[in-house]
Write a structure and sequence with these properties.
The complex is a heterodimer. Helix content of chain A is 36%, strand content 27%. Chain A is α/β, with parallel strands linked by helices. In chain A, strands 7-8-9-4-10-11 form a six-stranded mixed β-sheet, sandwiched between helices. Chain B has one domain. In chain B, helix 3 packs antiparallel against helix 8 and helix 6 runs antiparallel to helix 9. Classes of the chains: A alpha/beta, B mainly alpha. Bound molecules: adenosine-5'-triphosphate (ATP) and magnesium ion.
Amino acid sequence: MSVVIKTTNLTKIYGEQKSVDHLNMTVKQGQIYGFLGRNGAGKTTTIRMLLGLIKPTHGEIEIFGENLFTNQKEILRRIGSMVEVPGFYENLTARENLMINAKIIGVHKKNAIDETLEIVGLHNETKKLVGKYSLGMKQRLGIARALLHYPELLILDEPTNGLDPIGIKEMRRLIKDLANERNITIVISSHILSEIEQLVDHMGIIHQGKLLEEVSFDQLRKRNRKYLEFQVSDDNKATMLLENQLEINDYEVHDEGHIRVYSHLGQQGQINRLFVQNDIDVSKIMMSEDRLEDYFTKLVGGGTIG
Amino acid sequence: MVNLLYTEVLKLKRSKMFMLSILGSAVAPLMVAAAMFVQMQTKGIMAQMDILLLNTSIYAVLVIAVPLYGVITAYLYNREYAEDTLKNLLTIPVPRISLLASKWLLLFGWIMLLTVVTWGMAILSGAIGQFAGFSLSLLLQSLGQYMVAGVLLFLLSTPIVFITLVLKNFVPTIIVTIMITLINVMLATNEHRGLYPWTAALGIANGTLESTYPLIVSYVIIAVTAIAGLIATVVYFKRVDIH
Ligand SMILES: Nc1ncnc2c1ncn2[C@@H]1O[C@H](COP(=O)(O)OP(=O)(O)OP(=O)(O)O)[C@@H](O)[C@H]1O
Ligand SMILES: [Mg+2]
C-alpha cells in the first residue's frame, strides 16, 4: 500500500504557541483516516498546511510521494477538500457555484455537476441561491464541490460541524459510500470519537499540536473492546462449555481463571447459569467500560471531550 | 486565464454592485449638465458642450471616481475573504498570482465601462439640454481624454488593492479613498497638483497641468505609485497564510 500523505516534523508556530508541533503523520492509500483531537488541538492548522493554505514554520510534507512545496499545483489537482465551514458565492445557485470550480479545473464531463449534486442529495435544490441554504445544505454542497473533479484524496475538516444527529448519520453514510464506490483515500477530522469510530479504519490522535498515536482501528478495537469477565474455578471446563453449549468462540483466558468474553455482552446471566449448573464456581462477573472512549480520554487528558 | 476571467464575471451575477456602479458613474454628468442647464435658463448663458465635458471629467475623476472605483475594488478583492471562498479557489488550485491578475483584468474592464457610461451620459444630457458646440471631433477628443483618465485611475488602483487585502475589510479602504478624494479637492487648482498622483492623472488626461514641473515628473509619480502598490500586493499575497 503506497503512502499518500507523509509529514515530517511538521510544525506551525504562532507567536509563542506551537499550534502544530513536530507532527509525523502517515496516511496510506485507501485508508479512511480519522484525525481526532480536542478543540484547538491543531487539526485545522495541520489540514491547512496540507493544502498549501498556510506555510509551515518548519517541517516537510509529501503527498503522493512528491514534495508539496515544489509540486503544489499538480498535487492539489488530485485532492478534494473542505476546510471548516465551506464558503460560497451567496448570490449564485449551487450549480453556478460548482460551475466556477468546473470551469477552473476543466471538468469536461457534461453532467459532472448534476451527478455530484445528486450524490449529496441536493439535486432538487438547484433553484435556490446558496445564500438561502441552511448550514447542513452548505455542508453537503461543500462535499459536492470537493468531489467534482474525482479526487484521489479527500480531506474533510469536521464535515459534521453544525449538522443535526440525522444529518451526521447521513454524512457518515455518504462518506462511507464514497470510500466504497470511488475507492478514494479519505482524511476526516473530528473532535468527537463516537462520531467517527464507526467510519474510519485508521486514526491519528492529536493533542496540543503533537500526534500522540497513530493506530489502525482494528488494533485499537481489539485492544479496547468491551467484554464480560468471569473469574471461575476451572477455566478449561468453562471455555469448553462456552464453545459447545453457547457457541461462543470470541474469548480469551487471562491469568488463571479469568475469562474475557467479547461477544454476548449483556447475557452474563445466562452464561453464569451455565457455569453454575456445571459445578463451576463463579467468584466474580464484571463488565468492562466503554474502553475506546476511555482510551481517548486517557490519552488526551481532561474530562469531557470537545 | 480566459476561464478564470469568465468565473469572475459569473460571480457578479445578480449582484447589485454592478447596477449601483453604473448609477454612480452617471451622477457627475447629470449634476454638471443640470447645473449648466439651470444657469442657461436663469442667466441666459449659453451652455457649451465642451465645458460640459470638461467639468464632468473634473467632477467624475476628482470626486466620484476614487471612492466609486475604491468600492468596486474592495468588493472584488474582499469578497473572497468575506464569503470565505479563498480557501476553495486556492486549493482547486488557482495560482495566487492568476487570481490577482484575473480580478485586475475585470477591474480594468469595469472601470473602462464606467468611463464610457460617464462620457455617454454627458453627451446624452448635453444633447437633451440642446447645448451648443456639438462636433464629432470634440466628442472623439473628449472620449480619448476620458479613457486616458480611466486607464491612469485603473493603474492607481494597486495601492487600494493592497490595503483591501491586508486589512480584509471594506471600511478602511473606503476611508482611504475618501481621504484621497479630499486631497484631490484641496489640490484641484493648486499649482503643485502635478505631484499628487490622482490630480496628476486628471491633468495629464485633459492636458491642463501647469508648467510648474515637467510632465515627465507626473508620469513618474503615477508609475511609481502604481508599481509600488503592485509589488506590495504581489509580495504580500504570495506568501500570506490563508486562515
Ligand atoms: N491565525 C492564528 N493565529 C494564532 N493562533 C492560531 C491561529 N490559528 C490557529 N491558532 C491556534 O492554534 C491552535 C490550533 O488551532 P486549530 O484551529 O488548528 O485547532 P482545531 O484542532 O482545528 O480545533 P477545533 O476542533 O476547534 O476546530 C489553537 O490554539 C488556535 O488558537
Ligand atoms: Mg478546526
